[in-house]
Specification:
- The protein is 38% helix and 22% strand.
- By secondary structure, it is α/β, with parallel strands linked by helices.
- The chain folds into 2 domains: 121 residues, Fructose-1,6-Bisphosphatase, Chain A, domain 1 (2-Layer Sandwich), CATH 3.30.540.10; 112 residues, D-Maltodextrin-Binding Protein, domain 2 (3-Layer(aba) Sandwich), CATH 3.40.190.80.
- The chain has a 5-stranded mixed β-sheet. The protein has a 5-stranded mixed β-sheet with strand order 7-6-8-10-9, sandwiched between helices.
- Helix 4 packs across helix 7 and helix 5 runs parallel beside helix 6.
- The N and C termini lie far apart (50 Å).
- It comes from Microbacterium commune.
- Keywords: Magnesium, Metal-binding.
Length: 250
């Protein structure tokens, strides 16, 4: 299988296991730290086994595994989040995801995001879409941790805020056309955005840091705190508004 097919297969497989765990959880387990930990552990174990079997020569950066500095000298690195949205997963919700991306020679080369609650997986093999300008912008926002900047951005753009769960789920909501932009400023790591960004780019969406600079992966420090994924026809407007808000805050 090629790299995109591998990414999709791994994300789907981990997603199926996680969905089974979620559906078999007792009412007493819902929302518990134990259920979150079990999901992380089962998915990490599955992805580690499959990557070892299918891409043993490649390095891996995962939220749920010790970081190996050898990846910095590797030409191919899989960047994975075994369970993006542990809170939503543990609560029995559908708005969580599994991320599998491949970084190769400085660029995101392939990726897939499984949305097990929807029975859907989005990957970089999908054809690019044709995007049109919406009558009113819809912004994906955290259902529990909307940052002041994003709230102010919604006001500046006269945008509708659409609350939802994990980072990957929000990015995929842009890809699926349910919202028009996802702007995050609350802190993330490379595994939170690598696969969603790879898939968003393949779909023809705009992606960047909130200052308009490029998103770069496989850094020594994987902290990558902010993100824009949006309809390409809105990119300039969104970035200008974010820039104006940041200047006002200084």
């Amino acid at each position: 299988m090629d790299d995109t097919a591998i990414a999709a297969s791994l994300a789907e497989g981990a997603g199926r296991l996680l969905r089974e765990v979620q559906q078999q959880a007792s009412p007493e387990e819902l929302g518990s730290a134990d259920l979150k930990d079990r999901g992380d552990r089962i998915s990490q174990r599955y992805l580690d086994r499959e990557l070892t079997e299918n891409r043993a020569a490649d390095a891996v950066l995962s939220e749920e595994a010790p970081d190996d500095a050898g990846r910095l000298d590797a030409s191919r690195v899989w960047i994975i989040d075994p369970l993006d949205g542990t809170r939503e997963f543990s609560e029995g919700r559908d708005d969580w995801a599994v991320h599998v991306a491949l970084w190769e020679d400085g660029e995101l080369a392939a990726g897939a995001v499984a949305l097990p609650g929807l029975g859907e997986t989005l990957d970089t093999g999908m054809p690019a879409k044709t995007w049109s300008r919406p009558d009113r912008i819809r912004l994906a926002v955290s259902r529990s941790r909307a940052t002041p900047l994003v709230s102010a951005l919604a006001e500046a753009l006269d945008a509708e805020l659409i609350p939802m769960g994990s980072a990957g789920y929000k990015a995929c909501a842009v890809i699926r056309g349910e919202v028009d932009a996802y702007v995050h400023t609350g802190g993330q790591y490379e595994w939170d955005s690598a696969a969603p960004v790879a898939v968003a780019r393949a779909a023809g969406l705009f992606t960047s840091r909130v200052d308009g600079s490029a998103l770069e992966y496989n850094n020594a420090n994987p902290y990558l705190p902010d993100l824009v994924v949006c309809n390409p026809l809105l990119a300039d407007e969104v970035l200008r508004a974010v820039g104006a808000l940041n200047e006002r805050a200084l």
